[in-house]
């Protein structure tokens, strides 16, 4: 069994086509088919159903996550060895929720790139649930995630970074949703709501707040990504519940706090069973230093609390 054979198998599983998998991996189709057959013979079972539609056998379904993990670990090993000579080259795979990409990560990545220009950065933007799964299977080196009330996967090591309040965003060009500068979930339920898609922890927290208050949301638009939600709010389509970091640099949004307050905890996470690669540790240091500097000059809302000091 070789890593190359596993890579061919994963490519076939991803695209469900021998022709497209061969193109994806840069080999001739007969070579790819021959290597897959050799892998199946070594394992003692077919991994792929070869027919008009390419599907995985039960054995293929069982092997796929293991193959992904082995390939990810091999990539991490190559990166770690390359970094022995210093942070001069290598890849760093970073995940973050869309709200964190908008609110803080862009500046942190700029600083990190200036400090380590030869490190190739790969950014995955997704909801926390998907990011946690990607971390666990080795597809990411580090990720900024939201800590759910039930806690995170024990397979991950997390460092809490921020505790931030959730507030109501409305268009500054229109009337304020409350003359008091604050509003309850019951009052919010009377307003048309723009809601992010499923997979966002923000969505689940917001809907739980509605359920706890015994009210039902009135959706104006449901199912968007964070950037689309903010643009819809700015256009006057409705209001949205968003983290406080979002309001920085968004002059077209008005912030109205929710009472009682709803908070969320942001953490940086990595796999607990392996030591962080050098570039991931350097990124974490850069992030913590940046947050400390921004906090020191008053660049964060008073409702955003730094939980970890660099």
Strand content: 25-35%
Mind telling me the C-alpha Rg? 23 Å
Number of strands: 12
What can be said about the biggest beta sheet?
8 strands, mixed
Binned, the helix content reads 40-55%
- Please trace the helix and strand order, writing H or E for each element: HHHEEHEHEHEEEHEHEHEEHE
Average pLDDT score: 87
Determine the number of helices (DSSP H or I, runs of at least 4 residues). Answer: 10
Unreliable stretches: none
Class from helix and strand fractions: alpha/beta
Terminal residue distance:
44 Å
Mass-distribution shape = globular
How would you sum up this structure in a few lines?
By secondary structure, this protein is α/β, with parallel strands linked by helices. Helices cover 43% and strands 25% of the residues. β3, α5 and β4 form a beta-alpha-beta unit.
Question: Can you describe this structure?
Answer:
This protein is of the alpha/beta class and 310 residues long. The protein has ten helices and twelve strands. The protein has helices spanning 3-15, 18-25, 29-43, 58-82, 98-115, 128-136, 185-188, 201-213, 226-234, 278-296, and strands spanning 48-49, 55-56, 91-96, 120-125, 142-147, 156-171, 182-183, 192-196, 218-224, 240-243, 253-271, 304-306. The strands form three sheets. Strands 3, 4, 5, 6, 7, 10, 11 and 12 form an eight-stranded mixed sheet that branches. It has a two-stranded antiparallel ribbon with strand order 1-2. Helix 1 (3-15) crosses helix 2.
